[in-house]
Specification:
Helices cover 5% and strands 58% of the residues. By secondary structure, it is mainly beta. It has a 24-stranded antiparallel beta sheet that branches. The radius of gyration is 24 Å and the shape is globular. The chain starts with a helix and ends with a strand.
Length: 672
Amino acid sequence: MTYLGLGLIALAGMAQAEAPTEVIVRAHRFSAYVGDAAFSRVDITRDALQRGAAADQTLKDAAQASLFRRSSSLTANPTVQGMSLRAIAPSGAGRALVTLDGIPQNDPFGGWVIWAALPPEALSSAHVVRGAGGGAYGAGALTGVADLSLVPPQALQPYAEASLSDNDSHVFAGGFAVGGLGIHLLDQTLHGDVPVHGSQRGAADVETYGRDKSVLVNGQWTVGEGELSLLAGGYDSVRETGLKGAMARSRGDQVSLAYTRAPTADRNGYRLQIWHKDSDLANRSVSVQAGRVATTLANDQVKTPATGNGFNAAIRHQTPKSEWEIGIDARTGDGESREYYRYMAGAPTRYRVAGGENTLIGVYAEGTRFRGLLTLTGALRVDQWRTCNAHRYETDLTTHLPVLELALPGKEQTLASARLGLAYALTPQSTWRVAAYNGFRPPSLNELYRPFRVGNDITEANADLKPEALTGAEIGWRFAGARLSLDSDLFYNVVTDPITNVTLGIGPGTFPLAGFVPAGGAYRQRQNVGEIRAYGMEAQGRYVLGERLSLTSSLTVTHARVAGASGAVNGKQPAQAPDYSASVGMTGRLAKVDLRADVVFEGQSFEDDLNALPLKAYSKLNLSAGYAFTPHMGISVRVDNALDAAVPIQRSNDGTINYDTGRAVWLSLSYR
């Protein structure tokens, strides 16, 4: 109730402020590349982003993006919050590049994205381009890119929202602009259900819990012929994912300074940007005793300090007949995990430090030519990836003697990626498009050097991992009418050397490096495994039935299988990759009440690479209703998972199934 009271105070204060009569929006970055129209793209509006409880949920509903597991960032451990597109093979490190005003949001050490650092109310749009070959967006866009933009300070109206749920969760979000600065605040506490249901549940199982605090500040000022922009933010996020004693806390901050001169018909534009980010992760893992009667501490990752630095410079040309851009970008990252492990009688007997450094420097050129009804676009990138100072040291805490000392050799590789697209306008409303592309994602420092544990499952690192590569093609059709809009395509993608958690043994047993794996657990190692061949279709549409009613839908169907691999994984469906995912939504207005209903569907997937642990298909219904009792103040009710569907998110070798949080009812009071 404290946050609801704070929200009411903020609403009262803002209600007394006079709203500006004119909004001036100044471009502080280049506009989205027009040539993206030749590829599978989804543009998500600010209204859609604000409706979601977290940005990753909105991206899942609108573009079938996915985290490693089915659960959202509101309950997931930070290390599985990396984003992927097209359900080819989700990964905790993320196979899609996520950027915020040009800054990569993927963690410098692990590649995951801390979505709690991105308050939905602060975002003005999300531009999603599926398929490899990141071009100007940057390297690492293996399955695509999600390019997020912040609301410019000149367009930011003061807002505040206080929300309370029936399970005592509460959220406060607020924002305002002052002196060319936009300031966004988020404070939320999230209580969830016990993930294990029924007779499988034991004393080891507890409710999920989350606690997030974040702030984002963006500034924008006219300087000379261009715009100087500042971005700064920080976050502190805690997750307890349902096992007694297991907890993760991620903290970090980022800052960026950029200068942009927009292109005009008679002069080129340019953009210069530098950025820096810090992150840290503490992650405590437990083992589950037989019968789930208790947990014991198994691994205490006390710190994972990491830093990332970057620079990009670009020149953009844009006229009614053509556009092109050339540029250079560079990223550096370093980090290491510091952790206690191999607990005996409640005390650790080993200490591990594992990490390294990486750099990624690339140059790119892309261009688009408009010739009547035909649009031809292409891009080429060349990147140099390098790792150095890699290490893994393990010490016996009883004798204080080293048990493992690895000074691992560095790696260096030059990689090229490209994309080519063609769009032909049959009519002013109808366009055919065809595209081909290739791209890559280098392994993260976490994948290369740090082993990890979840419950009784242990996964070893692999310093010999190679970058993943994707080659693909697609053909699609886009229609934009007055009431009906459709966008659909067929795609074929091949991922070469995908990084996969390969099962090497089942506990109980003792294995190299990992040591003892308890009963019900599995011993795995990250490996490059042959290739993944995936084909499918995706579509999204919107139909306006009238001024008060509209329908939306989106669908991705993917047939993905492992090929060219040795052993039992050959021919199997990649872990966590569903057969299909879809959503259907209806938005309407009855009297003065805004109504919305969404149904989300997801097909069967598998917990493991051997397809021995299936996760059943599910569907769930989300409902919301809102009423504005003044032009700026309103109240709303949202019901997540209204029918209380059981959504399986994880399955252990002993048959134990974890489920996502069930029905939750939210009441919100807002000022906008």
